[in-house]
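Incident log, support desk, overnight shift.

02:14 A customer reports that sequence design results differ from what the structure should imply. Their input is reproduced verbatim below. On-call engineer (initials T.W.) acknowledged and began investigating.
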């Protein structure tokens, strides 16, 4: 966990000046949770929409780790309008995945999932964060 010190108090925190406050906080939380003896092992982070951006996923990838983030409001560089257009008439349960390369040569996957007739969910993933293959439902 991290204590937040307000806008001015957080300006000097590690990563913030380079990647911004939200991405900086995400990187600190991820990297600080890894014990020193496991620093060389790739870790994964799954987070809700607060952590959420293409930029944050790219930064996590550059650190050598994997991420799955839900995208709600921070969709700069995320193909939200394109995905919404593709899924607008799709029934619930349909998804689309788009692969792209970041400026740092990392690969990210943009996912749109038509949850119901009216609701689509959006995610940004690093290349090896998981699988988009259908799984077995446990009942």
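02:41 Re-run completed on a clean worker. Output:
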């Amino acid at each position: 966990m991290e204590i937040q010190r307000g806008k001015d108090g957080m300006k000097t925190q590690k990563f913030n000046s380079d990647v911004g406050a939200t991405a900086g906080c995400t990187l600190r939380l991820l990297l600080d949770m890894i014990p020193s003896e496991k620093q060389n092992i790739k870790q994964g982070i799954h987070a809700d929409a607060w952590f959420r951006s293409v930029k944050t996923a790219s930064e996590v990838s550059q650190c050598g780790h994997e991420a799955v983030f839900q995208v709600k409001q921070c969709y700069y560089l995320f193909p939200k309008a394109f995905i919404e257009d593709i899924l607008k008439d799709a029934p619930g349960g349909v998804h689309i995945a788009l692969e792209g390369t970041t400026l740092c040569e990392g690969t990210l996957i943009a996912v749109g999932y038509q949850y119901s007739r009216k609701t689509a969910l959006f995610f940004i993933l690093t290349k090896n964060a998981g699988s988009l293959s259908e799984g077995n439902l446990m009942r």
